[in-house]
Amino acid sequence: MVALPREGDSAAVRQVIGVLDLQGDVREHVAALRDIGVASRLVKQVCDLDGLAGLILPGGESTTLSMLLESTGLFDPIAALLAGGFPVLGTCAGLVLLASEVLDGRPDQRSFGALSVVVRRNGFGRQVASFETELRFGEGPVMPAVFIRAPMVVRVGPEVEVLATIDHPGCVGPSPVLVRQGRVLASAFHPELTPDRRVHQMLAAMSLRPHRGLAIL
Ligand code: GLN
Q1: Does the annotation count 139 as an active-site position?
Q2: Is 92 a catalytic residue?
Q3: Domain ranges, ordered by start, for the chain
Q4: CB atoms within 10 A of CB 130
């Protein structure tokens, strides 16, 4: 049973955001949250989910993360949280984990299906094809964006808001790289690797509002 913060709870006021710590670039997300004054907790086992206001699924390798989520018993509790509207940010492999459909994945790879997108693993090419670019994001300044074996969003459902796109020779038309559906936010790039903190601030803002009715884990 994982207790979720309610309005007035000190945990909700303190707003602790979890960072899944099974594999991948965990420390960079912790540092990004620290930069914006948000406390974090490493999530390695089910009890670490207790009282969190939101969660980050970091980049890494989605096939490995999927396996470790199963072996730690974290997959189902996180899936239940997400099904109830729990705020989450998935970056790169984290985006793959959130997607409703994964192309070029391993047959036994699981994803939460919390985000209505079809993604192609390594859709922008392998490691050597990693690149940096700048995104237009809202009215503000351009945002630096690092892509490392990034997944490509090849289809988005009608409920998905596309917040930023890039033009890439491998894509027909602009490719969505930052998307949101309710309280599910996901990027194909690594916002934790550059100094711009707007993506983490969006997660923090989504996590401030209390979420209810999820005490069924
Ligand atoms: N290609 C990786 C995957 O499929 C993602 C890479 C990353 O997170 N930097 O999970």
Answers
A1: no
A2: yes
A3: 10-207
A4: 14
Amino acid at 82: L
Q: Tell me how long the chain is.
A: 217
- pLDDT of residue 115 exceeding 60, the answer is yes
**Angle (deg, nearest 10), helices 198-208 and 26-35:** 70
- Tell me which H or E stretch contains 71: helix 62-71
Residues 49-85 have pLDDT tens digits of 999 999 999 999 999 999 999 999 999 999 999 999 9
Residue list, ligand 1 pocket, CB within 6 Å: 59-62, 92-93, 96, 121-122, 148-149
CATH, domain range 10-207: 3.40.50.880
Residue 46 pLDDT grade (very low, low, confident, very high; cuts 50, 70, 90):
very high
Ligand 1 centroid from CA 53, angstroms: 25
Query: Could you say which DSSP state residue 132 is in?
Result: E
Catalytic residue among 28, 192, 200, 211: 192
Catalytic residue (one of 92, 168, 200, 211): 92
Annotated catalytic residue: which of 29, 168, 190, 211? 190
What value does the mean pLDDT of the chain take?
Answer: 90
**Cα of 24 from ligand 1 centre, angstroms:** 9
Among left, alpha and beta (phi > 0; psi -120 to 50; other), residue 99 is beta
User: Distance (Å, rounded) from C-alpha 21 to C-alpha 56?
Assistant: 9
